[in-house]
Design a protein that fits this description.
Radius of gyration: 19 Å
Number of helices: 5
Shape: globular
Strand content: 25-35%
Number of domains: 1
CATH architecture: 3-Layer(aba) Sandwich
Distance between the termini: 42 Å
Largest sheet: 8 strands, antiparallel
Structural class: alpha+beta
CATH class: Alpha Beta
Number of strands: 10
Order of helices and strands: HHHEHEEEEEEHEEE
CATH topology: Protein Transport Mog1p, Chain A
Length: 185
């Protein structure tokens, strides 16, 4: 009886503390191998073949503008880019299952750690992407209503959240956003 009570109490405690302590959540979540909190060097080392990590202010002001790598006092915006034979830099396209990105970006905090990684995928890929992520991460949490338009489907882990949503201002754009958990203050 005493052992059964201890197990019941442990399960009840875990259920009660779910939101507060992350009980029942996986420790880590990733998007294409990128994890919240990675350093710029770690993200750079994972650049797809033929690309390199390029950050705002790395010496190509035209590309900074074209790639929308904005100046910020809080974040350093970066992307994986490739350079063609004429020296022109372009944003590298990423593959997610059968879909190809139109754009992506990384944002690093002043401490050099990844705060978020965002990928935009054109075409009506939302359903297939959520299904693929669900196969890997389990059933997503979703807001009430139409999740693809109201906050998206999301998967939580102790180190961050991965969200899949649609951009309702542009047709057929799926946005994947990996965000680090905010630091405790």
């Amino acid at each position: 009886m005493n052992i059964r009570f201890k197990h019941y109490f442990a399960l009840l405690s875990c259920g009660t503390a779910l939101a507060l302590a992350g009980c029942g959540q996986p420790d880590n979540i990733d998007l294409l191998g990128i994890k919240p909190g990675m350093t710029r060097d770690e993200v750079s080392s994972m650049a797809p073949s033929g690309s390199a990590l390029y950050c705002q202010g790395d010496g190509d002001p035209t590309f900074d503008q074209v790639a929308q790598l904005t100046k910020s006092t809080e974040l350093k915006f970066c992307t994986w880019a490739s350079v063609d034979s004429t020296g022109n830099r372009s944003r590298f396209q990423l593959q997610f299952d059968n879909a190809t990105s139109s754009t992506h970006s990384f944002a690093f905090g002043l401490d050099g750690k990844l705060r978020f990684f965002m990928i935009e995928i054109p075409g009506n890929a939302y359903g297939a992407i959520v299904k693929s992520l669900s196969n890997k991460l389990g059933t997503p949490q979703s807001p009430v209503g139409l999740p693809e338009f109201i906050g998206g489907d999301y998967w939580d882990a102790k180190d961050g959240t991965l969200t899949a949503s649609k951009d309702d201002s542009r047709s057929y754009i799926t946005i994947l956003m990996l965000q680090a958990v905010a630091a405790q203050r």
